[in-house]
């Protein structure tokens, strides 16, 4: 499999305005995410973070430019189940048990009953919800529902996870706990992650690199190399490190408006 998980080249997305003027959501964006790498997208509201993620997920198409996911088109990657998706609303089916929610993508893609049951058990153990397999989503807390959504996204062993503010609605303590779990899960599965967030500390703690976007039209302003060692396997104590605070400051300053740095040529580790 390609060593590059996501390759975005010269991508623009212009939405026709429907009488109120066209909106350039993304303008000439280049981004490369290596296999196994954790990259966060951060930037002011409306700068095109979700649009970029949706393009990678084949939920939308660029106006110009190209996107490859493990060397294939986003559509081919979707059909090959190369990636899993977890968005802010957990998106669980309320009439299905936790286990049945996790099994759903496997069932849709024809995995047999025994194999998908085994896989769901494995994923629920990974996110610490074995005891809640027979519960229904509305019997779980918001954080637990998020963990189910992550288990579901991981069920097909994707090499890439696309996450759009998955922890946005959670309290700070739950959020930090889920961040720790996500780091552990990434270390175990070696999945690459593209993660949209509004939280600078969250982006820094989770990521190998933080991509800072400029206000509309969305461009990549700069890419901050977090410099805390590999993101996968990072310990909670990193949050106390001087290097962690330095990276938080670097991202904050970039958000406040440094010079635009072209993303082309960003290194793939
Ligand atoms: N389907 C659409 N039709 C028209 N305009 C759209 C559509 N989707 C997004 N946009 C516009 O594109 C721009 C970028 O939106 P996007 O949702 O990608 O931003 P974002 O950075 O994810 O914002 P937020 O942080 O608030 O979630 C916005 O101006 C938005 O109004």
From TrEMBL:
GO terms for molecular function: ATP binding; ATP hydrolysis activity. It comes from the Bacteria. InterPro entries: AAA+_ATPase, ABC_transporter-like_ATP-bd, ABC_transporter-like_CS, ABC_transporter_ATP-bind, P-loop_NTPase. Residues 6-240 form the ABC transporter domain. The keyword Transport applies. The lineage of its organism: Bacteria, Bacillati, Actinomycetota, Actinomycetes, Micrococcales. This is Sulfonate ABC transporter ATP-binding lipoprotein. Keywords: ATP-binding, Lipoprotein, Nucleotide-binding, Transport. PANTHER family: ABC TRANSPORTER ATP-BINDING PROTEIN, TAURINE IMPORT ATP-BINDING PROTEIN-RELATED. Pfam families: ABC_tran (PF00005).
